Every structure is written in C-alpha cells, then in structure tokens.
Amino acid sequence: MIALISDIHGNIHALNAVLADMPKVEEVWVLGDLVGGFSFNNEVLDRITNLQNTKIIMGNWDEFFLRINSNRKEKYWQSPRYGTVSYLVDTLQPHNAKFLENMAREIIVESKNALLYHGSPTDIEGVILSHETAQATVQNHSQTLLVGGHSHKARYFTINGKTLIGIGSVGLSFDELPGTACYTLIDFDENSQLKNVVFRHVAYDLTAALLALKNSELPERSPYFTKSFALTAVTGQNYTKGADGIWTFIDNYAEKHGYSPDNIPDDFWENAAKLWKPNVSPYLLEKIGW
After folding, report:
1. Which helix (H) or strand (E) is 182 found in, with range?
2. pTM (whole model) above 0.85
3. Which of 23, 143, 235, 257 is at 20 to 30 A from 111, Cα to Cα?
4. In the predicted model, what is the mean pLDDT of residues 255-273?
5. Cβ distance 166 to 145 under 8 Å?
6. 153: which residues sit within 8 A by CB, 6+ positions away?
7. Residues 195-228: b if buried by 16+ CB within 10 A, e if exposed
8. 188-195 long-range contacts, Cβ below 8 Å, gap at least 24?
C-alpha cells in the first residue's frame, strides 16, 4: 500500500492528522505544494523530510518561493500581493530552502508504471478535473498510472486501461468538507497492477489552525490571501479562485479597467483586493477571527 499526499500549504495541524490516520505503508508519494498558505512551513517540511520511504516532487508554490527567493531585491516582492511568499522567504530555514531547491518536477516510478507530477505532466499549474482533460492527458503518456495534485479535489478516472488520480489536498481541501484534510491510499496486486484507490478525509483541529494563523504575521503581511485561505479551511470551498475567489475577482476587476491579469500594477491590485466581498455569512467571518 502507498499513501499519496499533496498541497499541504504549511498546515501542520492537517498534516499531523493525516499522518496519525495513515496506516502502515511501503511508501509515501508527496505531490508538491508543501508550503504557502498557513504559517508552519518549516514544521511541515521537517515532518515530510523525516518520513521514511518517500518520493517528493515540486508544486507551484514551492517553485514560486524559489523564484522570489532568487530575486529578493525586486520591488514587487515588497507588495502585499506577494506577502504569503515573502513571508516564506523571510522565515524558511536554510536547510528547508535548500531542500526545495533540489526537488524534482516529476518522478517516474518504473516498478508501478506510474508518473508523478503536480498540476499536469506538462504544466505545474495545470488542472485536471474533467474526463475530457484526463483522457487527453493519459493518451499522451505511456504510464498506466498518472498521479497529481494541485486541483485540491479528489478525482479518479479510468480510461482505456489507464488510471489518473487527483489526490486531493491535505492543507486546503476543496471537497466541501469543512475542517478536513484529504489524502489517498492505493494498493497493488502481486503483478504491480493497481487494484484499489481510497480517498480518506480526516478531521483536524481547525480551531487551533485558525488561531495559529491569526496570531502569525500573515494576516498583516498578506491580509487578503490569508483571509481566503482561512475561509477555504472553514468551508471546504475554493476562495482563492472561482466565483467567490479573490484571485478571480481581482483579475475580472482589472480586466474591466483595461489591465491584463499579468500586468496589474501593485497599487491597483491592492485597491481591488480591498473591494473583494466574498459571499459568506457573518458567522463564518466571525469564526475565522477577522
């Protein structure tokens, strides 16, 4: 049996719950985005790197850290727009930064005829949620098992004798189960053929996680994204992108004012972020603490 985990996003409370729930496995495959979101990035990396028999690949947030870390003097790094990542740059311990630098972008596991990636095999930020996208992906690769994260949703597709799994998110699940962490268990027969896939949703101490987030530097350094992460944890829904997501709101607002998403001035971005009003009840806003 192999455990699959991904998209922890610095949420040590969720990771601890998953590891406590996890049965004895022969390996743990970690599909990226260990950091970025909650404030326990060092603790998450230390726990992951101390696990036995792991295969670990890079996620888009891990890559984002490396990009900004190598350009510390750039002005955009000072903006609240990048506060979550600049917090990472300022607080990540050297041994953990070095670990991120040496992560692979994909891994082929020949013994299981498996390909491990983050978003999609060709795009670290690719999203595979539909049968059509999964079909286009598997037909372009020889492996019979393709495993990725990034979508934060548990998904399972079988297509022409191949299997594609989106393993869900430990730290910020979008499976609409508030306060839960998602991971996946897979098992093989004696011929190394996949025979079982189980998605596990595990409750974690959401109150403690939110309190730690509130008491960290993140609400001050990255108030808008931090609020979206907290709302996601409380609801199990996506408040970064989508109908109520801050990212989508800002991009749409900027487009109406003549800016492309890749060319939004920092002051315009911050003013737009202040206008973001997610469709949530006062109770939920009270629950996250700000």
Report:
1. strand 180-188
2. yes
3. 23
4. 92
5. no
6. 129, 166, 168, 169, 173, 174, 175
7. eebebbbbebebeebbebbeebebbebbbbbbbb
8. 188/2, 188/112, 192/111, 192/112, 192/113, 194/112, 194/144, 194/145, 194/163
